[in-house]
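Hi everyone, sorry if this is the wrong subforum. Our group has a chain we'd like a structural model of before ordering constructs, and none of us has done structure prediction before. Sequence below.
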Amino acid sequence: MPICPPTHPSTPLSRAAALSAVMISLSLLAGCASAPPRQVMRPAPVYPQPPIPPAVQAHPLIMPQMQEQRLPNAASNPPATQDTPYSPSMQAMPTASAPAVIALVTRAEAQTAAGDLGGAEATLERAVQIQPNNARLWLDFAQLRLAQNQPAEAEQFALRAVQYAVGNNGLRAAWLMVAKTRDAQGNAQGAADARRKAGFQPASPTQTQG
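Answer:
Right subforum, don't worry. Here is the predicted structure as tokens:
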């Protein structure tokens, strides 16, 4: 008969060791399962900056909008004489020309002399945007409109010069420009009224007859 190797029955100590090993394995697995995943730090994305647009030039003046703000009629202002004070609308405002304005006026004069009326207009628009209360600029605009055969608009610009004129000489030049624009429109009475405001009194009938 074959001899079978003896079998050793399981002892309580061996069963306890096996159970302990199983418990340790389960606890390790549970720890691995509950541990949060490690977060990988990534650098913040870098987006390219949009290109900087070129400098935007100043928008040109819109003439129709300027004409909507109608100035008072010349007849509504009192004559500019030494005995009569100026009305508030005719009071002088600071109009010392800035260096940039002087340079633009010089350029506009050269453009006008060369026959480039469109270029002169654009240059004067830039000057007015810098210093809108400069009566000289409005006189130049009025003269330019006369050269463009637009006497009605020229009159509005001349009246704007009256509004910002400084001193007797400034008012005189502004009213004479108003008279010139009204003459160009065939408004003899209005032109005579403007000349009276400039300090020119019409000749009396006896002086005319003599």
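For your construct planning: The longest helix spans residues 12-34. Residues 131 and 165 are 13 Å apart (CA to CA).
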